[in-house]
Amino acid sequence: MKKNIKEQKKVYFFGGKKADGNSKMRNLLGGKGANLAEMVNTGVPVPPGFTITTEVCTLYNQYGKDYAIEAIKNEVKENMKKVEKEMGAGFGEKDNPLLMSVRSGARASMPGMMDTVLNLGLNEQTLQGLAMKTGNEWFVWDSYRRFIHMYGDIVLGLKPESKEDEDPFEVIMEELKEEKSAKTDQDLSTDDLKELVKRFKKAVKDQTGKDFPENPWEQLWGSVMAVFDSWNNPRARYYRKMHNIPDEWGTAINVQAMVFGNMGNTSATGVAFTRDAATGENIFNGEYLINAQGEDVVAGIRTPRQITKEGSVRWAKLAKISEEQRKKEYPSLEEVMPSIYKELFELQKKLDTHYKDMQDLEFTIQEGKLWMLQTRNGKRTGAAMVKIGMDLYKEGLISEQEALLRMEPDKLNELLHPVFDTKELQKAKAIANGLPASPGAATGQIIFFADDAEKIAEEGKKVILVRVETSPEDLNGMDAAEGILTARGGMTSHAAVVARGMGKCCVSGAGAVNINYKKRTMTVNGKEYKEGEFISLNGTTGDVYEGKIKTKDPEMSGDFGELMELAEKHTRMYVRANADNPRDAKVARDFGAKGIGLCRTEHMFFEGKRIIAMREMILANDEEGRRKALKKLLPIQREDFEGVFEAMQDLPVTVRLLDPPLHEFLPHEDKNQKQMADELGVSVDEVKTKVNSLHEMNPMLGHRGCRLGNTYPEISEMQTRAIIEAALNLKKKNIKAIPEIMIPLTGIPEEMKMQEDIVRSTAEKVFEEYNDRVEYLVGTMIEVPRAALVADKIAEHAEFFSFGTNDMTQMTYGYSRDDSGVFLPVYIQKGILKHDPFQILDQEGVGQLVEKAIIDGRKAKKDLKIGICGEHGGEPNSVEFCHRVNMDYVSCSPYRVPIARLAAAQGAVKEKASSKYEIN
Amino acid sequence: MKKNIKEQKKVYFFGGKKADGNSKMRNLLGGKGANLAEMVNTGVPVPPGFTITTEVCTLYNQYGKDYAIEAIKNEVKENMKKVEKEMGAGFGEKDNPLLMSVRSGARASMPGMMDTVLNLGLNEQTLQGLAMKTGNEWFVWDSYRRFIHMYGDIVLGLKPESKEDEDPFEVIMEELKEEKSAKTDQDLSTDDLKELVKRFKKAVKDQTGKDFPENPWEQLWGSVMAVFDSWNNPRARYYRKMHNIPDEWGTAINVQAMVFGNMGNTSATGVAFTRDAATGENIFNGEYLINAQGEDVVAGIRTPRQITKEGSVRWAKLAKISEEQRKKEYPSLEEVMPSIYKELFELQKKLDTHYKDMQDLEFTIQEGKLWMLQTRNGKRTGAAMVKIGMDLYKEGLISEQEALLRMEPDKLNELLHPVFDTKELQKAKAIANGLPASPGAATGQIIFFADDAEKIAEEGKKVILVRVETSPEDLNGMDAAEGILTARGGMTSHAAVVARGMGKCCVSGAGAVNINYKKRTMTVNGKEYKEGEFISLNGTTGDVYEGKIKTKDPEMSGDFGELMELAEKHTRMYVRANADNPRDAKVARDFGAKGIGLCRTEHMFFEGKRIIAMREMILANDEEGRRKALKKLLPIQREDFEGVFEAMQDLPVTVRLLDPPLHEFLPHEDKNQKQMADELGVSVDEVKTKVNSLHEMNPMLGHRGCRLGNTYPEISEMQTRAIIEAALNLKKKNIKAIPEIMIPLTGIPEEMKMQEDIVRSTAEKVFEEYNDRVEYLVGTMIEVPRAALVADKIAEHAEFFSFGTNDMTQMTYGYSRDDSGVFLPVYIQKGILKHDPFQILDQEGVGQLVEKAIIDGRKAKKDLKIGICGEHGGEPNSVEFCHRVNMDYVSCSPYRVPIARLAAAQGAVKEKASSKYEIN
If you average pLDDT over residues A624-644, what whole number do you get? Predict the structure, then answer.
């Protein structure tokens, strides 16, 4: 090995027209090295340089520094000569100095984990030459002091000893600034910087006992070895462990010439996009500055100019600048440097085509020569993502499948919900962060009570409903509000689930928000906000802002429709929606839902008379009393079902029988208990006694789901009757309803059997009464872990399974979703969990149960229909998992239907691809 | 088939010296038929009769009644002749009538599910002959009216139409009794009975249009067909479904001669045991009555006499009856009928040896001839079970293995705990029934508060502590009480777990008990009991009685010790105990525990100063504050561990780190919160705020177990330090401690990894400080379902697994043990569940997870030590399961150690047997 490596090429040149390496040599050259080589080979003018291979890192780790330097010394020198030739400058040459950067670059991206050294080659001599060239002495001294700081820190180890210690260079800098009464670094004069360099060098000498190295080669070797060293620093090690990157891989190192856009008026620097990152339009665009460094473009000190003339003219119009002034003060690159522009334009075209995606380019023009510093796939808005993807497909650059895979399903949210105005958002003050419970952006006045929210919204005002937690009693207020903010509760709390169903922005579990209902204030980090003050919510990120922020309504383009058609073409799994009422059902249908996967019946019991009858039933002491109350509920439920079935006509509707524990329907406050007692004509004591007797230590694991229907079969009977009668009534009107009756929370085959018996015998009774029939299915939720374990036996009594992965996650992890907010964030921060398992389905654990239940269930019943109706049914990673384990459908909240459809199609496309090729 | 069956023998005779069938023909003759044949073949004088095979039942079901009768007619007639010959009487013969019984008898026992008809052959003529023989006209008419009732009901179908309807014969009977002012059936005269028979017959004629059949053969065919019919009655069908008995099996029918012990002074009837059912001594014993029916012996109207002379003399002594009077009024069978006695004595010897177990015999002497009506393995006390089993083994009748298998492990409880005096118990009034939470019997005064219980017990009074639920604050009272009764809580509630640990009688979850702490009363079904009144508890059955009942203290015999030695010899799995203090540890060790499998640390935090420091820690707002409080707890914990380790020296002690949610350590009542605030020098508001912030919706699924240790690593650090320091301190005294540190509630491999790191690094630190080391293990509980699913990965960081099947049952079923008391009884009653899964481990569901975790865990780590520390570790069925899935040990409460040892041995014996022979 030792011998072998000696004979191997260890340094690879890139630059000019041809690189030694290419994009396939990722293992040897690292990701960055391979990309640089590829850019060069594509004909892009990249500042030249060379890559020291990962094998050298291994040598270094095995045999140490001296051995490693010896092994590459000659090759590095040869390559440096090539770089000098390309750049027309010399490394360490006084008048015409070539400066270099040294950067890590492993096989797998490890952003920010290893070290970088810039401006190698600067010393007391060469900085004179650079000052001449740039005509900017301040800049050069500033670069020099930065170089000493960086080198001193990384190579010479003058780092703070611990987090609490101060950086020794910072200490010196602050002292000087105090002496000079300089507020910022920029306030220091060139002379101040010279003084600073002196003090920095003294500190180096004091600490290391040696002078700061002036010899560029010494600087180079030191930097290269320090970067190799950084492969083994604690944060890099930790990152590798987290991402399963083997320690043996090692990093490559890229030593590259530095170029400067601030070398006078034939120099410039800029950033550009091959397509519009906001709209996705196929228009080259970007900004630049003459005689400037990269940072200047984004720093906002000088107003950047537009690259294209068209862009410049449009910009001037928006900024209300006359054409004359524009031409004078803000001319485009196209006008100022037409030939460079032409070269840049061709290049961007080439890169866009080569990478088959919108590119985000960084370039520098140094003394009339264009250099590309970076090209990468550009970040974009959701709308742009769809447009660009579909355009690339139509342009023939990518296939249908590739177009589908290019989309990030979650970004479709931006097309479905309002978003903040980007400019205004930059100025906004974030005051808290919660869970991104339901996407979208909203601005409105803080209101704490649902009824107030409804009233104030009726006056045409915009409202944010702010609650500790929401309950079904808050539905009217949630409906009236622009957005909902809760201090407690997770991704599957009441607020979150209902808001997603409504397509309404919601931030939940914002722990920093302290609400005082009595004073009608909320306090965040010591600052008090009164009812009526404005706040803004970003439900996509979970951010809460002070004051108003302008929002933009979503627009759905034709591209979106075409994308959905593509998804439809490639998907195997179909998508249903979770919806409890005709309105949500219609939304879902418009988004392409193929039915309802979860129609909860409990929400139907809360309004007006219903809750009275419901409470009467709960208060009843015997079956007779319960039946009497249920008789009152029957026509109400039947009507509800008729509405939902009609909205979903010809498509199946899965109705889940009563699930929550009965105490959820009883009032817990004295006032409301009194009211209930009056309404039902019983004593308050009776109400209180019932409330107490129904109290549970762990309601999540209590008397709910089919445990209710099996202790009180008359409830299941009534609900079945309502469902079947509704379907039969619609049939008379020639409307086809396809009910699927779903039993919640089964864990024992006999439990399911008993419920199946009740449903089937009730249905038969109703058929007889109507002298007519409808098709219907009986199935169950699989949510209790035990149900997954005995799925084969449960399948004997079920025509379909629907996975309730919310509850299954709770029970499989032993996490109450109402309480885990205390430790889940800590667990994610400490790296114990990668994600919140309530957001992204835990494939490692919960997934095993899901997969086992599917395999065993289908073994027992070949044509068992299988879906998911937990909140994971709308989360892209989870949807792909559902595809892989062969579910028939996923069901999610209406506004996530398009996202689920896209993710389902991606799952299918990936599966086909992996069956064709071996996937790494 | 139809032809084939015609040629087969369909009726099998038994009686005399030889039966047509034998014990191996169970499928054809049913269980009862095969047993009768075996008895005959063994030489036992059984009243003769014949068995109609199960195949006839199949014929009957397929081709109907007429076909079936035709198919067996001739065979039945031939066999009836044999019976007549044996009995010296004729079927339907006026002066010397032979009466027959018709009973069902399927392959598998289905007790009480099918019908029986007795006294076939009685009619207006034959009853005259019987009256002459018995000299008891009343008895004969009474038998006749019973026969008409039974036959009318079963064969002729004069049944009540539904549960609400009245039995038509009962209605007639009640009318007559009213007319005759007869309070009981016995008050009716012979003439009244004749009138009753008249009216019964009229009812039959009115209802069926036919006369009641006088012809014995018509009676016989009707009865046989009715019994075949009863194979398909709803309760039999339901029973078969529950017990997986195929419908196709069908039942056989046994037609057998009836014998009468009331045919004058040469007739008698009695019951006998081949050994003493109370003590197990090998002494023949029993009771008899001259000229009596079987019921008379047990009915208590006449005082039964002893069978043996020895027994009779002893009995007379106890009853203070002179020898003279005894001889005259209560002579033994041995004295009265010496030759019959001799025959009986030989027979019982033969049967005891043949069945190799203590037999419970029923016999009748009819006119000087002895008939055995039944022999079966006799019921016995726990002490008798041990003595008989060990005696049989020593007598060479059964092997060591067989002796072990003969024991019912749960019955050992009677040897370990007090039991009620049997006689007094019969007179006691049961007022409620709860869960048999901890075995034993107790009598005492009702006391509602722990402190009072302690005081009153100190006065030498016996106390039953009665609480809605118990909490750690009640420990002193529980300790002082004879027994504990709670209105709420299951088999694994605080009361149940602690009581079992103390070996103290406890009935939990007695829902009928309503406690009013203010009034200091408890009300049961409307009756109020004041504090100070006496009640009695049977913790083995869950029964609660009014008043005092004498109890008997347990005695452990030498047989018990020998049995434990046998168990030790044959077991593979060893047994540990769950114990938190030196006292329990000692009890466990004395019972043969091989270490502690679960030492909970949280109970250590409740007393005196400890709870103050604990609360200080909880109240702390940062790590520093927590560390300060933990420092106070360290020496206390260390001392506790030293005590436990010393009691268990040389044996391993598994210490579980802190498990319950922190709010369990905070007071929830205003008064106590005030006290806590004063003690800690903080405001009441601060306490209340902390209590509220720690409140959880579902504490079972909340911030507990290793989630605490991972959010507050300093807690795990302190506990580890206390454990390791304790072990090192003992080492200085030459006492060997073997700590096994157990992490609770892991569900994610990274969780375990993090805790392992904390434990190991802390231990190393302590070793360094002490400049000495001890051996220790780090392992985890497997209780969260997810832990079982990813057990291979968790095993990488664990040296042992201990299954926490309490919590695993909760999460796998989704049942909160605190709340499931509402629906579990309903589920068991409805047959959805066969057992309470908190009592008997659910092998079908939870068992899958356990088995998977063991297999996967050992795949990852071959020598992984595996045990169970859930309450199931002391339940015999569950212990056998643990053996089958290859656990190394089970751990249970100290008083269940012998039971677990026996069950473990049984598991091993059964496994060896099944590896030798094929087991059905």
Answer: 95
- For testing contact with chain B, the best of A811, A817, A838, A844 (most B CBs within 10 A): A811
Minimal Cα–Cα distance from B792 to chain A, Å?
A: 12
Collapsing DSSP to helix, strand or coil, B424 comes out as helix
Q: Mention every residue, 6+ apart, whose C-beta is less than 8 A from residue B701.
A: A698, A700, A701, A810, A811, A814, A815, A816, A819, A820, B811
A702/B699 Cβ within 8 A:
no
Residues A117, A118, A122: CA angle, nearest 5 degrees: 115
Q: Indicate whether this complex's ipTM tops 0.85.
A: no
* pTM confidence score: 0.84
Q: What is the 3-state secondary structure (H, E, C) of A49-117?
A: EEEECHHHHHHHHHHCHHHHHHHHHHHHHHHHHHHHHHHCCEECCCCCEECEEEEEEECCCCCCCCCEE
For residue A920, the model assigns a pLDDT of 35
What's the rounded Cα separation, in Å, for the pair B229 and B251?
A: 10
CA distance B448 to chain A (A): 21
Which amino acid type is present at position A652? P
Q: Long-range CB contacts (< 8 A, 24+ apart) of B756-765?
A: B756/B797, B756/B798, B758/B709, B758/B713, B758/B716, B758/B717, B758/B720, B759/B716, B759/B720, B762/B716, B762/B717, B762/B720, B762/B721, B762/B724, B763/B720, B763/B724, B765/B721
The answer to whether the CB atoms of A818 and B697 lie below 8 A apart is yes
Phi-psi region of A695 (alpha: psi -120 to 50; beta: other; left: phi over 0): beta
pLDDT, one tens digit per residue, over A419-447 is: 898 888 888 999 999 888 888 899 999 99
Looking at the annotation, which residues of B are catalytic? 494, 869
Type of residue at B503: G
Q: Model confidence at A46, in pLDDT bands (50, 70, 90)? A: very high
Mean predicted confidence (pLDDT) in A251-264: 92
pLDDT digits (tens, 9 = 90+) for B47-80: 999 999 999 999 999 999 999 999 999 999 999 9
Q: Which of A607, A606, A497 is nearest to A894 (CA)?
A: A497
B15-23: long-range contacts, CB 8 A cutoff, minimum separation 24: B15/B40, B15/B46, B15/B47, B15/B48, B15/B49, B15/B82, B15/B83, B15/B86, B15/B257, B16/B40, B16/B48, B16/B82, B16/B86, B17/B43, B21/B51
How many cross-chain Cβ pairs, A to B, lie less than 8 Å apart?
170
Cβ(A711)–Cβ(B826) below 8 Å: yes
Q: Which of A812, A816, A845 sits opposite B697 (nearest CB)?
A: A816
Say if the Cβ atoms of A807 and B826 lie within 8 Å. no
**One-letter-per-residue 3-state SS of A404-443:** HHHCCHHHHHHHHCCEECHHHHHHCCEEEECEEEECCEEE
DSSP secondary-structure letter at B838?
T
Residue ranges of chain B whose pLDDT lies below 70 = 1-6, 161-164, 298-301, 915-920
End-to-end CA separation in angstroms for chain B: 27
Q: Which residues on A lie below 8 Å from B833 (Cβ)?
A: 748, 750
In the structure, what pLDDT confidence band is assigned to residue A474 with cuts at 50, 70 and 90? Answer: confident
* Total length of chain B: 920
For position B919, what pLDDT does the model report? Answer: 37
* Chain B residues touching residue A710 (CB < 8 angstroms): 823, 826-827, 830, 832
pLDDT value of residue B814: 97
> Which of A697, A814, A842 lies closest to B811 in CB terms?
A814
Contacts of B868 (CB under 8 A, 6+ apart): B597, B802, B803, B805, B850, B878, B882, B887, B889, B890, B891
Q: Are A816 and B702 an interchain contact pair (Cβ–Cβ within 8 Å)?
A: yes
Q: Is the pLDDT of residue A396 over 90?
A: yes
Residue A821's pLDDT band (cuts 50, 70, 90):
confident
